[in-house]
Amino acid sequence: MTVKVLVAYATKMGSTASIAAAIGSELRDAGCDVDVHELGAVQAVTPYDAVVLGSAIYQRRWMPEAVRFLRRHERQLTARPVWLFHSGPLGAARDQDQPVPPDVARLARLVHAPAVKTLAGELQADAVTHHRDLERLVGDSRDWQKIRAWSRDIAAALLTSAPALER
Ligand SMILES: Cc1cc2nc3c(=O)[nH]c(=O)nc-3n(C[C@H](O)[C@H](O)[C@H](O)COP(=O)(O)O)c2cc1C
User: Fold this and answer.
1) Does residue 12's CB lie within 6 angstroms of at least one atom of ligand 1?
2) CA of 124 to the centre of ligand 1 (A)
3) For the ranges 7-21, 76-90, 118-132, which has the lowest average pLDDT?
4) Which residue of 5, 25, 50, 89 has the lowest C-beta tally within 10 Å?
């Protein structure tokens, strides 16, 4: 049986999209059947056996569409394995786990997701035109090895439980 996985993400400047693509590619290499979509393009999670969902962090919050998605699909997400990540920290803070916003933490508990994974982000020069204090953080802090390692952990968990996912 092939495990069908949705990797869905919310982004403002695009760097979380590449993280989602890398997760998708690693899961595919492990034998999963994967769709990678921006959250706005996802109508339902019911076609999928498992979901990986992530959001960029802005001002310590998730993108509103990601929180809305978790709320809207809570019941269906509860019925399948879910992994959550957020992308944000930059520069010297790149390896620091970021606090999970309370609304997300509550929803993560409801859908029985494991601890939210923090993945370092990328800050583009365009993003800081109104935030001069952030100029020194411009650059790409994304850690592709960490992203791939986490994706392999997900794949291993999924493939171990594949028979149980059969619906
Ligand atoms: C105005 C602003 C606020 C930000 N706030 C946070 C924050 O609170 N925590 C964090 O870890 N990263 C923060 N970041 C960094 C972004 O999360 C990071 O650049 C991320 O990779 C952007 O993702 P995106 O390109 O998918 O939108 C902030 C960036 C900007 C421009």
Assistant:
1) yes
2) 10
3) 118-132
4) 25
Residue type, 79: A
- pLDDT, average across residues 59-82: 98
Identity of the residue numbered 128: V
Q: Specify the DSSP class assigned to residue 25.
A: H
Per-residue pLDDT of 74-108, as tens digits, reads 999 999 999 999 999 999 999 999 999 999 999 99
**Interval between CA 56 and ligand 1 midpoint (Å):** 6
Which amino acid is located at 129 in the chain? T
Band of residue 141 on the pLDDT scale cut at 50, 70, 90: very high
Query: What domain count does the chain have?
Result: 1
Phi and psi torsions of 16, nearest 5°: -70, -25
Cα-to-centroid distance, 86 and ligand 1 (Å): 10
- pLDDT given at position 118: 98
Q: Which residue carries 């390896």 as its tokens? A: 95
Q: How far apart are CA 159 and CA 167, in angstroms?
A: 15
CATH number, position 46: 3.40.50.360
Whether 76 and 44 have beta carbons less than 8 Å apart is answered as yes
Expressed as residue numbers, the domain containing 102 is 4-165
